[in-house]
Amino acid sequence: MWYSDEVIEEVRSRNDIVDIVSQYVKLKRSGSNYVGLCPFHNEKSPSFSVSQSKQFYYCFGCGAGGNVFKFVMQYDNCTFQEALQTLAERSGVTLPEAERSEASRQASEKRQTLLAINKLAAGYFYYQLKRENGRTAYEYLRGRGLSDETIRKFGLGYSDKFSNDLYKYLKSKGYGDEILRDSGLFNVDERRGMYDKFWNRVIFPIMDVNSHVVGFGGRVMGDGKPKYLNSPETMVFDKSRTLYGLFAARSSRKKNLILCEGYMDVITMHQAGFTNAVASLGTSFTSGHASLVRRYASEVLLLYDSDGAGINAALRAIPILNEAGVHSRVVHLDPHKDPDEFIKAEGAEEFEKRLDAAEDSFLFRVHVAEKDFDMNTPQGQNRFFERCAELLLGLSDELERNLYIEAIIKEYRHTGITADDLRRRTGVLAMKGTRVEMPEAPRNTHEQRAKVKKTDASQMAQKLLLTWLVNYPQIFEETKKYVSPDDFVTPIYRQAAELLFAQLEEGDVNLGRLLNHFQESEEQNEVTSLFNANIPLEPGEEQNRAYADTILKIKNESLAKKNNEWDMTDIQGMTQLIEEQKKLENLTRRKNEIRAPF
Fold it and tell me: Which of 133, 206, 303, 439 measures 20 to 30 Å from 313, CA to CA?
């Protein structure tokens, strides 16, 4: 849908960006801004900044940035129109009837088509499970103790042994190869053409919180590899912000969510009455998952397998949940490996008791750390309490830190350690700058380099001037004597300059409103980086020299561009270029006169 600038601005102005972002990200005030862990990439320390005065966000780690519309688009993986409608509903704005722009119409239609394809595929897989060819898969599920009602609730199915079974079915429904390729349901190679990604597997449809099928998981029947296979990420499926089972768990009346490892864990627990169980999808728990969890629960019970891998998964998830403001506890299933095994062996009532007895996640980390040291020797004890101090240093709340110090002392008093000893050790580490270990984020060096574009000297000059105009609007009157928006040779900077110059003329700079004009993701990232840069200036002559150099660089590049584009048959244009060249030469000679009131 296409809406007027006035309507878009009304919706934006009624949705404070700090209020919106804080629903997904735990924010802390830092000076005039708010900071938190970026929900769009894994990171150890906060690099995600939200400006209430400027009404935009920017991540110094991955370069993501924009206004409130862009945040909702990026977080919920939706179009601008969908974000606008969501925020309009939230703020009570009634959107007028309007015509769709072609680009938004196509994007929305593609999303709906992909969801329709996934829905058809899920129905087809479910149908195959009930046929003779799916008997082995059906018996496998029944053998795992699943009822027909549970199989139906989760839409479990079967992909046949034929590798083009689903492809032929969807082609018969009139879908073309291009959209089928984008669905993530098929592989393509030169020899075989397009063929089913999933075949001879039990199928687990993956649904979003609105019960739309966005992807699939498949467990192989037999000894094939890999044992479990998930859909790739698509326009409608983002693994880092999708939790299996959340579509059902969100309506559970339980006070918390149970985070476990796999499909069968979730399904078994739901069947046993624990309808608040969810699982991440073939990937480590991320800050995106934590932000999603925070929308539905303030506490998470971690229920990973009791082997080494499960313990490590819990250790990685705890600090991520902590940073998102979600309290966590760890459920112990010993001597059983997973919830499926536990429930079958001891029943739902005993399982409920284990949930109630879940261990505080901080003390869980302390107890896991204890196993790394020889507590029968002074050296082992010393290293263990050093590790406790590191963990305590990761707690920002002083009262919380003191309570955990007392809890540690109560348990390990027999070693002779006192609360003052542990406080001093924590203080010494703080003075050294030691921080608690956080899970390593995957290295996205190449990906981030692709997103954060390198700029040449010309682009840097344009960025500098736009940044200064935002941070020091008092220099505008002087600047416009020399430079106009037409002098910005980079198209996106020219558009930003046109909008900013117009606002400065009116004396009402509103960056949130300005960003409404940039609806493409990369454009908002680029423009937001201009307005979020912090470029210090040395006072006095250094200030004026930097300002003058920037003005001259922009004017030189502008004139060079006009020269390159000049039509040699245009005599009037040539005369104008000569005149502009004389003005620039004169301005260069008078460089010392170019002074800005920073």
Answer: 206
Q: Return the pLDDT at 282.
A: 67
Chain segment 278-313, per-residue pLDDT in tens:
998 867 888 888 888 888 888 999 998 878 888 898
CATH superfamily of 451-593: DNAb Helicase; Chain A (1.10.860.10)
Cβ-based neighbours of 324, under 8 Å, separated by 6 or more: 25, 26, 37, 287, 290, 291, 293, 294
The yes/no answer on whether domain 105-237 falls in CATH 3.40.720.10 is no
In sequence order, what are the beta bridge partners of 260?
A: 279, 303
Residues facing residue 237 across a β-bridge: 234
The tokens for 95 are 């959107």
Q: How is the chain split among helix, strand and coil, in percent rounded to 5?
A: 55, 10, 35
Identify whether the C-beta of residue 36 lies closer than 8 Å to the C-beta of residue 42. Answer: no
Q: What is the pTM of this model?
A: 0.64
Peptide bond into 226 cis (omega under 30): yes
* DSSP-derived secondary structure for 521-563: HHHHHHHHHHHT------STHHHHHHHHHHHHHHHHHHHHHHH
